[in-house]
């Protein structure tokens, strides 16, 4: 279709779980290496790549209540978890010979640079993979929101949302054998049909700013690059 995004610059939303692989929590080294190789290979295509990384493999704010930790503080712990992933990813990408910069929304200058739009654009222009960690820096959000915010402020062509399934389905494909995958959807259709593409706050922002979202599976080798090459499978949510 004529309105398909051109991949000059993209934001890849990578959940912490994507880095967990078969491990029960935390980082799974072969999975980290596989995804870093994919990102480095994707950057080889000349597309500027910013990654917004989650932290669910270490901690999620909503789990705080179980541990007697109030939500705002638990979210601080969650944001720190995203920086752990960001630092690991930065090193893994650089090990593949591609420069990367982890930028944190929560300033921690002895560990990494603080996020600023200017710094991010500078590193992108140099061909570095930018990793946006620390979420928004605010509690009561998940990393879906900074994925859309970064896409908007960096004028990215799309958010590529890496998930465990290869798109958005009419029903849960794990439970309903008749579930059908959408090739394309509009933001309005996704809302009308009550399809959960990402968190509602983040999705509203994407809709308002007409930001395309590509939902695809991170399971296979080279899946991020494949999306950029037009070979991958996924659901395109277009304005
Ligand atoms: N978080 C936050 N503000 C943000 C982004 C994230 O407080 O802007 C916290 C929140 O507690 C969240 C955790 O960081 O649960 C980890 O992020 P997320 O749950 O999005 O990780 P993912 O599910 O992508 O692994």
Structure description:
There is one protein chain. With 239 residues, the chain is an alpha/beta fold. The chain has a single domain, classed as Carbamate kinase (3-Layer(aba) Sandwich). Helices cover 34% and strands 18% of the residues. The protein contains seven helices and nine strands; from the N terminus they run βαβαββαβαββααβαβ. It has helices at residues 29-44, 71-95, 117-125, 144-153, 187-192, 200-208, 223-228; strands at 9-14, 48-53, 100-104, 113-114, 129-133, 158-163, 184-186, 213-217, 234-238. The chain has a nine-stranded mixed beta sheet with strand order 4-3-5-2-1-6-8-9-7, sandwiched between helices. Strand 1, helix 1 and strand 2 (48-53) form a beta-alpha-beta unit. The protein is globular. It starts with 8 loop residues before the first strand and ends with a strand. The mean pLDDT is 96. It binds uridine-5'-diphosphate. Residues 15-17, 54-56, 60-61, 74-75, 78-79, 81-82, 135-136, 138-139, 141-143, 145-146 line the site of uridine-5'-diphosphate. Uridine-5'-diphosphate binds at residues 15-17, 54-56, 60-61, 74-75, 78-79, 81-82, 135-136, 138-139, 141-143, 145-146.
Summarize the structure.
With 239 residues, the chain is of the alpha/beta class. It is 34% helix and 18% strand.
Structural features:
single chain; alpha/beta; ATP-binding; EC 2.7.4.22; Uridylate kinase; 239 residues; Carbamate kinase; nucleotide-binding; 7 helices; kinase; binds uridine-5'-diphosphate
